[in-house]
Design goal:
Oligomer: single chain
Domain EcxA zinc-binding: 332-596
Low-confidence stretches: 51-61, 602-610, 712-723, 738-746, 845-851
Number of domains: 5
Domain DUF5117: 83-215
Number of strands: 33
Strand content: 25-35%
Keywords: Hydrolase, Metalloprotease, Protease
Radius of gyration: 32 Å
Organism: Candidatus Cryptobacteroides intestinavium
Protein name: Zinc-dependent metalloprotease
Distance between the termini: 41 Å
Number of helices: 20
Length: 851
C-alpha cells in the first residue's frame, strides 16, 4: 500500500523535504489470511526467514530437522506479521471472498496521511470535509483517490491554515515469488534492513542484515513538469548506471521513460501508480538539495519502486561549488552546469539502486595526479560517485584541465559494488570473496564516515587533503580578489551621466550577489579548517594484511602538517581572509584542538595493578579495568515529586578490559517500574548531555540530569492527555566488588524443567554445567526434560525463544526462569559460564546477574 500526493494547496517550508505534489509514502505490506468465517489483515513487520517460501502461501516448509522448523516458527511468530483488522466473510463466489471494507477505506491510518503528518507538519484529518473520490481498478492494482482536509499543526514551521490534499492510495499485488535476499557485507556499502541468518546446523539464528536492491531492473519515468532543458543530463545519468549492467552482463538494467501528456489522459500512466519509479523536479528555491528514496519490502529487502526528487534550489549549490572550487565568479558555463547536474542525478540514482555514501572514494589520487590533465581526462578524480566528492579543486588554471573534466563521474568502486549486489550468478561464498577482494584493493574500498576518522570526511579530496585544500585556498583568494577588483572598478566610475551609470550598472549586473560570494568563500574556507582539525587526535581506519580494519592514532607528522595548516589559515591568516577569522572563531578552533587532544588522551587509559577507570567517550560510558565484578546501584535523587527512589534491578557483571555499560544504564532508566509505577515513559535525548562523575573509594558516582517524557493524569475524562517532559536527577553508584559465595547453599533436590523447544546443543551444555555444579557445590539439581507445556505453576524452568539475544534470568522465591534467546550464540565456554551463574541464582548463592 502506497500513498501519493496528487495535488495540494499546502505550502511547505522553504527547506522542507516533503509536502509537494508527487510525494510518495509507504509502503505498508499486508496479507489476508483466512481464519474460519473471517479474513484477517496482517501487516509485515520484518524480515522473513529463509525457510518460508511464498510458493507455500507464506507457511513454513517442513524439513527433516524438527528443531530447525520450530526455530523458524518461533521467529515468524514474533518477527514477520502482526494482526491489524478482521473482516467477516459475507459471501464466496467462484473461489473469491466478499468482505465489507467501507469503514476500512475511511481509516486515515491506511487510506490517508495520518502516518506521515509529522513529516508533513500537518495536524489531524477533518472528517466532515474529507471524502472518497473514486476507485480505479488496474491490472493487479486498485487505486482509491480522496480529497482530504487536514487541520494545522501548531508548531514552529508548521502550517497555520487548513490544507487540502488530493491523494491516491495504491494497493498493488506483490509477486508470488519473493526475491532471494542478498545478505549485507560491511565491506560493500549498501542500505540494509535487519534480518537473521541461520547457522548451517539449524540450531540458532544470528543477527544479520540484507541489502536494499531492485529484483533486477528499474525503469524511471520523468514526472510531469520536469524542465525540458534538464532532461539531457538526466538521460546521461540513467545511462551511466545502465552501462555497468551492460558492461558486465548483469540481468536487468536502468531505463528512462518520458511519458507525454496524452499518456496521462488515456490512463497509460498514473502519478499514483506504485509500480512506477519517478524522477521529479520540485520548485523549491529554498531547498538546495536532491534525494533518492527507495521503498522496500521489509520481508526481503527488495526495492519495489524509487523516487528521485531534485529541488530547484540545487542551482544555488552548483553555483557555490563552481565559485568556491574553481575561483571563477562568472556565471557557470552551460556545459559545466549540465555536467554538474548530471553528477547530482547520477549520485542520487546510485542511492535508489541501494548504494550508501562511500567516504573513502575521494582518496584515490595524489595532488600531482589530480593536476595531471591527461590522467583527469581519462579517469574521474575519485573512485566513487557515492562520496561527497565535488569538483577537482586541486587543479590549477595552468594545469590545462578543462572545467568539465573537474566534475566527478562513476568510478571503479561503483562498478564493483553494482556487480556485487546485482550479480545473481554469485554464490554466498563468492560474494564474500568478492567483497574481500574489493576491500583489499584501494580503488575499490568502502569505508563509511566515522566521527573521528579524518580520512572519511565529506568534501575532502585526494590522499593528501591538506595539500589539495591549500590549492583550493588559492581559488578562494582569487575569487575574493576578482570580485573586489571588479566592484572597485565600478566605484571608480564617478560620472552621473547616463553613459557612466550604464557602464557602472553593466559591471555590477555581471557580478554575483556580494552576500553569496562572501558566504560561499567563508563556508568553504572554514570547512577546510574543520578537515584539518579532524587530524588532530584523529583515529583513521587502517587495513591490516588480513583485510580487517583497525583504528589507529594519526601519525605525528600528519598532525604537525594539520597544525601548520591551522596556524597558516587561522592563527596567522592571510590578509584577504582576515574577515573570515574573527576572535570568536579563533577561540573555537583552540577549544576544538584541546578537546581533540583530551579525547585522544582518554583513549590511552591503561589497566595496571587493578586500575579501575571510567570515561565518557562519544556519549558512551566506558569502564576500563582488570577482571573483576562490577555492580550498579541507582536511584532517582529528585524530580517528578520523587526523592531517593531506588531503581529496581541491580545489575552485577564481570568485566575485563574496556567495557561499554551505556546500554545497561539505559535499561535501568526504562524499566517497567519507571514507566508504570512512576509514570515516566522514556528518556528524552542523550543521557550524557548533562553528566558528571567523581571517583570514590570503591568506584564512581555518576550523576545525570535527564528529561523524561511524561503523561499527567487527565484533568477531565474526555480530554486526551498531552505529553510533556519533566526534569529528573538520577545518580548511579558504579563499584567493583568480589562476590562471596554463601557458606551453604540449598541442598534439597531442585527440579529444573527443560522445555522441548530447547535445542540439543544447549541441553548438552546445560547437563554438563549441572553435573559439575552439583559435584562442586553439593547441590541436588535434577533436570526434568518436559515434553508438554510449562505453565506458571512450574517453579523452575529453562525455555528457548527469539526474544532478544543471549540468556536472561528471572528469579524470585519459588519462581525461576532461564530464557535462551535465538538471535545469536556465544562460544561453549561462555555458555557454560553463564549457565553456572544462572544456577547460582537458582540456588540463591550471592553471585548475581548475567550480563
Amino acid at each position: 500500500v502506497f500513498t501519493t500526493v496528487i495535488d495540494t494547496d499546502f505550502e511547505p517550508a522553504p527547506d522542507a523535504k516533503f509536502g509537494y505534489t508527487g510525494d510518495r509514502f509507504g509502503p505498508m505490506i499486508f496479507r489476508f489470511v483466512r481464519e474460519g468465517d473471517e479474513l484477517v489483515l496482517q501487516q509485515a513487520t520484518g524480515f522473513a526467514a529463509s525457510i518460508y517460501h511464498s510458493g507455500n502461501g507464506g507457511h513454513p516448509v517442513s524439513t527433516d530437522n524438527p528443531e530447525r522448523d520450530h526455530l523458524h516458527a518461533l521467529y515468524a511468530e514474533r518477527n514477520e506479521y502482526m494482526e491489524m483488522k478482521r473482516f467477516p466473510i459475507l459471501d464466496e463466489r467462484d473461489g473469491c471472498m466478499v468482505i465489507p471494507v467501507s469503514d476500512w477505506l475511511e481509516d486515515d491510518a491506511y487510506f490517508g496521511l495520518l502516518p506521515y503528518t509529522a513529516a508533513l507538519r500537518i495536524g489531524s484529518r477533518i472528517e466532515h470535509r474529507s471524502r472518497l473520490l473514486e476507485v480505479e481498478h488496474r491490472k493487479e492494482q486498485v487505486i482509491i483517490r480522496y480529497n482530504l482536509m487536514y487541520a494545522p499543526m501548531l508548531i514552529p514551521g508548521g502550517s497555520r491554515d487548513t490544507t487540502a490534499w488530493t491523494v491516491g492510495v495504491c494497493l498493488t499485488l506483490l509477486p508470488r515469488e519473493r526475491m532471494q535476499p542478498v545478505y549485507a557485507d560491511s565491506r560493500v556499502g549498501y542500505f540494509r534492513i535487519p534480518a537473521v541468518r541461520e547457522d548451517p546446523t539449524g540450531i540458532y539464528l544470528e543477527d544479520a542484515s540484507v541489502i536494499k536492491k531492485f529484483r533486477d531492473s528499474v525503469t524511471f519515468c520523468v514526472y510531469p513538469g520536469f524542465p525540458e532543458h534538464l532532461l539531457p543530463p538526466v538521460r546521461r545519468a540513467v545511462d551511466n548506471w545502465d552501462r555497468i549492467f551492460r558492461k558486465y552482463g548483469l540481468d536487468g538494467g536502468v531505463r528512462l521513460l518520458e511519458p507525454q501528456p496524452e499518456d496521462f489522459e488515456t490512463g497509460k500512466f498514473r502519478v499514483d501508480d506504485a509500480r512506477i519509479s519517478w524522477i521529479k523536479y520540485n520548485k523549491a528555491p529554498g531547498n538546495s538539495n536532491a534525494y533518492g528514496r527507495v521503498y522496500t519490502d521489509v520481508r526481503t529487502g527488495e526495492t519495489l519502486c524509487a523516487y528521485l526528487g531534485i529541488f530547484s534550489g540545487v542551482d544555488r549549490t552548483l553555483d557555490r561549488w563552481y565559485l568556491s572550487q574553481t575561483g571563477n565568479i562568472d556565471p557557470v558555463p552551460e556545459d559545466m552546469y549540465m555536467a554538474m547536474f548530471e553528477m547530482v542525478a547520477t549520485h542520487e540514482i546510485g542511492h535508489t539502486l541501494g548504494l550508501e555514501h562511500n567516504f573513502y572514494g575521494s582518496r584515490r589520487f595524489t595532488t600531482e595526479q589530480l593536476r595531471d590533465s591527461a590522467l583527469m581526462a581519462r579517469l574521474s578524480h575519485g573512485s566513487s560517485i557515492m562520496d561527497y566528492m565535488r569538483l577537482n579543486y586541486a587543479a590549477m588554471p595552468e594545469d590545462g584541465i578543462s572545467m568539465v573534466d573537474r566534475v566527478p563521474v562513476i568510478g571503479p568502486y561503483d562498478e564493483a559494488a553494482i556487480c556485487w549486489g546485482y550479480g545473481d550468478f554469485l554464490s554466498s561464498k563468492e560474494r564474500s570473496e568478492y567483497a574481500a577482494w574489493m576491500f583489499s584493493t584501494d580503488s575499490l574500498r568502502y569505508i563509511p564516515q566515522s566521527i573521528d576518522d579524518p580520512l572519511t570526511q565529506a568534501e575532502d579530496l585526494g590522499s593528501e587533503p591538506m595539500r589539495t585544500a591549500a590549492n583550493c585556498m588559492l581559488h578562494l583568494s582569487r575569487a575574493i580578489e576578482s570580485y573586489q577588483s571588479r566592484a572597485a572598478a565600478a566605484d571608480t566610475i564617478a560620472g552621473t551621466d547616463a553613459a557612466s551609470l550604464a557602464r557602472k550598472a553593466a559591471i555590477m549586473k555581471a557580478l554575483p550577489d556580494s552576500a553569496f560570494v562572501y558566504s560561499a568563500v567563508s563556508s568553504q574556507y572554514r570547512q577546510f579548517v574543520e578537515h584539518a582539525l579532524m587530524f588532530i587526535g584523529g583515529r583513521p581506519k587502517m587495513v591490516e594484511s588480513g583485510g580487517r580494519t583497525v583504528s589507529v592514532p594519526i601519525s605525528s607528522g600528519i598532525q604537525e602538517e594539520a597544525m601548520d595548516f591551522i596556524r597558516k589559515y587561522v592563527f596567522d591568516p592571510p590578509q584577504w581572509a582576515a574577515w573570515i577569522v574573527d576572535d570568536d572563531y579563533v577561540e573555537y578552533v583552540k577549544s576544538r584542538i584541546m578537546r581533540n587532544l583530551s579525547r585522544a588522551k582518554e583513549k590511552s587509559l591503561t589497566r595496571e595493578n587493578g586500575a579501575f577507570d571510567m570515561s565518557i567517550e562519544k556519549d558512551r560510558l566506558i569502564l576500563e579495568m582488570d577482571e573483576t565484578f562490577i555492580s550498579v546501584d541507582a536511584q532517582i535523587d529528585s524530580g517528578a515529586g520523587l526523592r531517593n527512589r531506588p531503581l529496581p534491578s541491580t545489575p552485577v557483571f564481570r568485566c575485563k578490559g574496556r567495557a561499554d555499560i551505556t546500554d545497561t544504564l539505559y535499561r535501568l532508566l526504562s524499566s517497567p517500574v519507571i514507566r508504570e509505577k512512576y509514570g515516566l515513559l522514556s528518556v528524552h535525548g542523550n543521557i550524557f548531555d548533562v553528566a558528571g562523575y567523581r571517583k570514590v573509594d570503591d568506584g564512581f558516582i555518576l550523576t545525570l540530569d535527564l528529561k523524561y517524557r511524561y503523561y499527567p493524569e487527565r484533568p477531565v475524562v474526555e480530554m486526551f492527555p498531552v505529553a510533556g517532559t519533566l526534569p529528573v536527577k538520577v545518580s548511579f553508584h558504579i563499584r567493583y566488588n568480589t562476590p562471596v559465595r554463601q557458606d551453604t547453599v540449598l541442598k534439597e533436590e531442585i527440579s529444573l524443567a527443560v522445555a522441548n523447544t530447547v535445542p540439543q546443543f544447549y541441553r548438552r551444555q546445560l547437563k554438563r554445567a549441572v553435573r559439575r555444579y552439583n559435584r562442586e557445590c553439593g547441590t541436588a539439581i535434577v533436570i526434568n526434560e518436559t515434553p508438554g507445556r510449562i505453565d506458571a505453576g512450574c517453579k523452575a524452568a529453562v525455555s528457548f525463544d527469539v526474544l532478544g539475544s543471549g540468556m536472561s534470568v528471572y528469579s524470585v522465591p519459588d519462581f525461576f526462569r532461564l530464557n535462551i534467546g535465538a538471535d545469536n550464540i556465544p562460544d561453549k565456554r561462555t555458555i557454560r559460564h553463564k549457565f553456572r551463574m544462572a544456577l547460582d541464582y537458582l540456588t540463591e548463592s550471592e553471585i548475581a546477574v548475567i550480563p
